[in-house]
Amino acid sequence: MSSGTVVAVSRDATHGFSKANQSTIRLLAGLGVEGDAHLGVTVQHRSRVAQDPTQPNLRQVHLIHAELFDELHRAGYQVRPGDLGENVTTSGLDLLGLPQGTILRLGEEARVQITGLRNPCRQIEAFRPGLLQQVVGRDESGTLVRKAGIMGVVLDPGEIHVGDRVEVTLPATPHLPLEKV
């Protein structure tokens, strides 16, 4: 089992792009982040609601690794935790390398099950021109790589604070790679 650290937590009650940093957020089982626009049993992202408002919300919590911000800074982009709309920014974990079904314990009580990769949208390009190309690319074999974080559902409620430990529990094998959700 590996572990990392929570370096920022964010939420926003409106459907804006960036989220305001907080000292603490509270996760609600089966719903998401208390006080966040994406809270709900069914999908809350506007484009997905337009497609089918009854589909389950597999995107209750959005996590990004702080190492992405370091990479973006080296490419000339000033991006901070919460800017890309994530709820939890972590450090020390390869979030993108985790398999489907991985469970993250955030802080003392909260548990989130990873459902898949965030599919970066044009809002990222509107936020900072050229940024979409930085978070979506291709690897050496030509495979599409999405780097804008992972999504999950809340299994157990609890508060998450900056500085909390993140513990990883992998699912049973065979491990399935993350796909966009």
Automatic annotation (TrEMBL):
Pfam families with a match to the protein in the record: MOSC
Stored SUPFAM superfamilies: PK beta-barrel domain-like
Membrane-spanning residues: none
MOSC domain location: 20-169
Protein name (record): MOSC domain-containing protein
Organism expressing this protein natively: Actinacidiphila polyblastidii
